[in-house]
């Protein structure tokens, strides 16, 4: 029984590590839409909840500046996407805001 719990824990660690890391070197094409950037950079870990709902946001992050800071800085399990800058960052943040639910 302990062996099974250990194997489950190790498997979960590897799965979570796949979405973690310190940074990502992804750079969006200059003309990429927010939806395309989300699909390429974010959807590996943030599966869209439905056809028109990307994710659920907390009230404290439900603004453009906070979203940009979050994806450029990363967090414990989320890599930083430092190469998403300028207009591409604005398009991604707008896509997330427009296509997310705030709770």
Please give a structural write-up.
The protein is mainly alpha-helical. It has a domain of 69 residues: Cytochrome Bc1 Complex, Chain D, domain 2. 49% of the residues lie in helices and 6% in strands. It has a two-stranded parallel sheet with strand order 1-2. Helix 2 crosses helix 4 and helix 3 crosses helix 4. The longest helix has 18 residues. The protein is globular. It starts with a helix and ends with a strand. GO terms for molecular function: electron transfer activity; heme binding; metal ion binding. It comes from Nitrosomonas ureae. Keywords: Heme, Iron, Metal-binding. This is Cytochrome c551. InterPro entries: Cyt_c-like_dom, Cyt_c-like_dom_sf.
What is this entry, summarized?
By secondary structure, the protein is mostly helical. The protein has 4 helices and 2 strands, in the order H-H-E-H-H-E. Helix content is 49%, strand content 6%.
Return the CATH class of the domain at 34-102: Mainly Alpha
Can you summarize the main beta sheet? 2 strands, parallel
Mean pLDDT: 84
Structural class: mainly alpha
Number of strands: 2
The level of helicity is 40-55%
Number of helices: 4
In the sheet with the most strands, the strands line up as 1-2
Q: Strand content of the residues, in percent?
A: 5-15%
> Which outline best applies?
globular
CATH T-level topology of the domain at 34-102: Cytochrome Bc1 Complex, Chain D, domain 2
Q: What would you say the CATH architecture of the domain at 34-102 is?
A: Orthogonal Bundle
